[in-house]
Automatic annotation (TrEMBL), chains A, B:
InterPro entries: HTH_HxlR, WH-like_DNA-bd_sf, WH_DNA-bd_sf
Entry annotated with the keyword Transcription regulation: yes
Source organism of this protein record: Planotetraspora thailandica
The protein, known as: HxlR family transcriptional regulator
DNA-binding keyword on record: yes
Amino acid sequence: MPKQYHCPVELAVDIIGGAWRPVILAHLKEGVHRYGELRRRMPGISEKMLIQRLRELEAEGLVARHDHKTVPPRVDYHLTDEGASLAPVLQALYDWGVGRAERTKTTIDWPVTDRRTAPKEGTPVAE
Amino acid sequence: MPKQYHCPVELAVDIIGGAWRPVILAHLKEGVHRYGELRRRMPGISEKMLIQRLRELEAEGLVARHDHKTVPPRVDYHLTDEGASLAPVLQALYDWGVGRAERTKTTIDWPVTDRRTAPKEGTPVAE
DNA sequence: CCGGGTACCTACCAAATGGTGCGTACTTGA
DNA sequence: TCAAGTACGCACCATTTGGTAGGTACCCGG
């Protein structure tokens, strides 16, 4: 028996709900595609969760997985058309998040893992 | 130490995430205000959950609770300005849900609890 | 040969989420 | 007097979600 929804929002939340799915989708929408890159952009998620969510999004037809079958492994994920149709939702969430952060004086700690700005091996990092 | 977010979407989802919060907010946005009415519109939620979520949304400043202090009890909830600022998010979720339902041939089982169409006491209901 | 990086998987455990059922207090209707 | 309806609160339990810590397999640099 397929799940019964009583409101379109219920259906939407059932598919893209949860703490991480929208964040993953938003990153993919912004052009982050590789698994490792997603990980670095989301320091709060565990590898297990990331993989699990990616698999679910794949199963729901929102993201497609592309394994280059090279070694070292290289896999990237991108939005399908169905996933891309979520753009308005993701954008709205993003925009609201920005506004809310300002209103509540919350800072966003961007983990900008850009190769050009990342610390070199020689750079001492406090630990 | 306040929670650290690494992306505005993370922040947004942390506040309005979960299975029920967006649905409640969407209903309030549409003009359903009384507690009992919300319940009837969301047959899948238990009373406990509904109250719990409403309390959380209240604490986050998204909804305001108004107790008429009459007997029998009459309480209604409405969006605050902060809650109303979520309109684009809720609308996007709603619209996507509608489209997704069509694409996946999922039907939405609206629990239209309208007094004019609701069964009268005399109406025998199979059980 | 050893560590690090890639992209995972598996088992085990803790916390959050959500459901059931019962109780409150008060009124109206049968 | 008793059930029903309003809007909850609370205790207990099951399910779900998520975290931690390991391991796989392969390559490259030192």
